[in-house]
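Technical annex, item 7. During the second reporting period the consortium partners agreed on a shared format for inverse folding records so that results from different sites could be compared directly. Each record opens with the tokenized structure and is followed by the designed sequence. A conforming record, contributed by the partner at site C, is shown below for reference.
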């Protein structure tokens, strides 16, 4: 399979996941980019572009993504290190489940227009605490507890 073209990657900026959560978190944008492009590994330049972030913003959140082991380095191509989503990480697994639930909700909504549907908030509710914990982690000043992923999972 071929990588998405740059034009296709740019269309992913406002995915269902980001749109329905209604949160403009750079960390969530990076994770959403990886969830939408999980088959490949990407350079930081590709990640910033695909997530709709400046390189400066990506570099600001990068240490936290690494500290939580949400992303993993895969290989080096020339001078560029390549990264992909760490699908073994329990936080990533929960985010992928939430992303799938949101997508499934909209697929069913369009498929069965006559039947009563769950409202999107009911679909998002189970993951809301995790999402809020990620955003708080992203915005919190550094502390001894900051880099402990179990705190995010227990939120």
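Designed sequence (site C submission):
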């Amino acid at each position: 399979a071929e990588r998405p073209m740059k034009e296709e990657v740019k269309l992913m900026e406002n995915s269902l996941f980001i749109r329905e959560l209604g949160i403009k978190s750079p960390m969530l944008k990076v994770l959403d980019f990886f969830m939408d492009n999980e088959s490949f590994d990407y350079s930081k330049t590709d990640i910033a572009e695909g997530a709709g972030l400046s390189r400066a913003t990506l570099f600001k959140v990068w240490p936290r993504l690494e500290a939580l082991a949400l992303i993993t380095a895969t290989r080096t191509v020339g001078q560029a290190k390549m990264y992909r989503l760490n699908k073994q990480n329990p936080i990533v697994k929960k985010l992928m489940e939430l992303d799938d639930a949101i997508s499934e909700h909209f697929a069913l909504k369009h498929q069965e227009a006559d039947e009563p549907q769950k409202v999107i908030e009911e679909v998002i509710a189970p993951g809301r605490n995790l999402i809020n914990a990620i955003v708080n982690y992203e915005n919190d000043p550094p502390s001894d507890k900051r880099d402990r992923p179990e705190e995010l999972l227990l939120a």
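Helices lie at 6-10, 16-21, 26-36, 44-51, 55-67, 90-111, 120-139, 149-154. The two ends are 38 Å apart (CA to CA). All partners now use this format for quarterly exchanges.
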